[in-house]
Design goal:
A hairpin with a 7-residue loop joins strand 5 and strand 6. The chain is globular. By secondary structure, it is an alpha/beta fold. The protein is 39% helix and 21% strand. Bound molecules: nicotinamide-adenine-dinucleotide.
């Protein structure tokens, strides 16, 4: 294991950096037996830790432990106690907020300001929100029209062992967004963090061990997707796979889980349109559009990455977003003053630069950025491309980086044509509309092929707001009642009580 000079944690170094990271299986911390994996600081490109990831055998032991735990104390634990455990986990996370914020910033390069005041608090909120659901997962009585007398009702039961596979772009939030509803519903879990970002999930595992969750209820198996992820998806004792990641892997999981018919929910990629009409509050729209694409260096599934702006205000809007791009201060997550961090890996940086190059070759023009700064780490300047057209790869494909492609429309009354262009994508995750005309906003919201429509904002994420995509952005919802019910099975009971 290596350490390096530029790590500027102000917290005591957690075990993860003093001993190789381990796997949490059946309440014990064990060494992985899979692949040797490096953890990088993406701000410098240096290796900050190494560990041995989970093998298929490790996953098998974790799944069996989760399966046994389903039969044990967990199954008879009153829902209120499950809720209390989740609440305790939220309290523990809150007590360690600064530590988690620093670890997440170190491992992902996100500005500390973001992890400290937004992401870790968001994970805490998600835990508390779902703690409340543990006691509210009811069935209902139904009236039927059968002859005779009947007592008929439905009931919700936990689906069983949930395999949770998460990506690297929001490691802790994504892990908790799956873990919390699964546990609230009474499932047991095997969580696989992304191989690039296992740090906060492992630390969360350490907190979990002290809180009173029975052994085997929560298992954490960082490792390669093609090894540990694949082993989860194909394991016969896994009842549900909840996956967030790329559309290609989501499609692969549809095939691998088909034979067993296990439940599957897929939160996949996006290429979300932003529609700005001339009547909008343009200052807010400009700020918001810039935040939507440049936050997390564009590595957000719901990033507003395709801008359609009314031509009468196009110069003002595109210039405004470009100015904001140029004003961002690139730096490491733990560096003072950073407003945009690096991409997660050298591979991701090359991918983003390749797309920018293709866009320019195909006729797009640069209004901002377009290159990698001359410094260590995986940085790309926030980039705005004008002159974009539908056939270009930068318009059609998810780049997952800080790259906005802009196009214009002339007549704001041609809603079908404007919405048609917005919907002209294989993806359908989020869509953003900026206008002061309420009727227009509602008419557009009904027509957009997107799971999440936002009007005059780029945010609107709340644990009570269902989130998920349509088309190649996947299916299934996270958050809200729908998010927790996705970890339950609805059973109907019909009893003939006639004499
Ligand atoms: P990815 O699909 O490569 O990996 C995601 C996770 O799946 C990782 O844990 C990885 O190890 C695992 N994995 C990879 N191959 C696997 C396999 N064969 N079987 C099982 N698991 C496997 O995606 P990524 O590059 O880590 O993340 C970026 C993608 O995630 C983008 O497309 C982005 O849009 C998407 N994403 C979607 C949402 C959403 O809510 N819709 C949120 C965040 C990210």
């Amino acid at each position: 294991m290596m350490s390096h000079e530029t790590t500027t944690l102000t917290i005591p170094k957690p075990q993860i950096f003093t001993q190789p990271l381990k796997l949490l299986i059946d309440g014990d911390w064990v060494d992985g037996s899979g692949d040797a994996l490096d953890i990088h600081d993406p701000s410098t490109g240096q290796v900050i830790s190494t560990f041995t990831g989970a093998s298929a055998d490790d996953v098998d032991r974790a799944v069996r432990a989760a399966s046994r735990a389903l039969e044990g104390e967990w199954s008879t634990m009153p829902p209120s106690v499950r809720g209390r455990l989740l609440w305790r986990l939220a309290d523990a996370l809150e007590e360690h907020l600064e530590e988690f914020a620093q670890l997440e910033s170190l491992n992902t390069g996100k500005p500390l300001r973001v992890t400290r005041s937004f992401e870790i608090p968001q994970a805490i909120d998600i835990l508390r929100y779902n703690a409340g659901w543990a006691t509210k997962l009811n069935g209902e009585t139904r009236d039927v029209s059968l002859p005779g007398e009947w007592h008929t009702y439905t009931m919700r039961r936990p689906l069983g062992v949930a395999g949770l596979i998460v990506p690297w772009n929001n490691p802790l939030v994504m892990a908790v967004a799956k873990l919390a509803p699964a546990l609230a519903a009474g499932c047991t879990v095997v969580l696989k963090p992304a191989e690039l970002t296992p740090v906060t999930a492992a630390r969360l595992g350490e907190l979990v061990c002290d809180l009173g969750f029975p052994a085997g209820v929560i298992n954490i198996v960082p490792g390669l997707g093609t090894v540990a992820g694949e082993a989860i998806a194909t394991h016969p004792l896994v009842d549900k796979v909840s996956f967030t990641g790329s559309t290609a892997v989501g499609q692969h999981l549809q095939r691998t889980t088909a034979a067993s018919l296990k439940r599957l929910s897929l939160e996949l990629g996006g290429k979300s349109p932003v529609l700005i009409f001339a009547d909008a509050d343009l200052d807010r729209a400009i700020d918001s559009a810039a935040l939507s694409i440049f936050s997390n260096s564009g590595q957000i599934c719901a990033a507003g990455s395709r801008l359609y702006v009314q031509s009468s205000v196009a110069d003002r809007v595109i210039d405004g977003i470009s100015e904001r791009a140029k004003a961002l201060s690139l730096g490491g997550g733990l560096e003072e003053g950073t407003t945009m961090g690096p991409l997660i890996s050298a591979r991701q940086r090359e991918r983003v630069l390749r797309y920018i190059g293709e866009g320019l070759e195909q006729g797009a023009e640069l209004a901002a950025g377009g290159f990698a700064p001359d410094r260590p780490g995986f940085f790309v300047q926030p980039t705005v491309l004008t002159n974009a057209a539908p056939g270009m790869s930068v318009v059609a494909e998810e780049i997952f980086g800080p790259v906005l492609v802009t196009q214009t429309f002339d007549d704001p009354e041609e809603l079908d044509a404007i919405v048609g262009r917005a919907n002209n994508s294989v993806y359908g995750l989020s869509a953003y509309v900026w206008t002061r005309d309420l009727a227009r906003a509602h008419r557009i919201a009904r027509r957009l092929a997107a799971g999440n429509v936002r009007v005059n904002t780029h945010s609107g994420m709340d644990p009570n707001m269902p989130f998920g995509g349509v088309k190649a952005s996947g299916y299934g919802k996270e958050n809200g009642r729908e998010g927790v019910e996705a970890y339950t099975e609805l059973t109907s009971v019909a009893m003939n009580i006639g004499a």
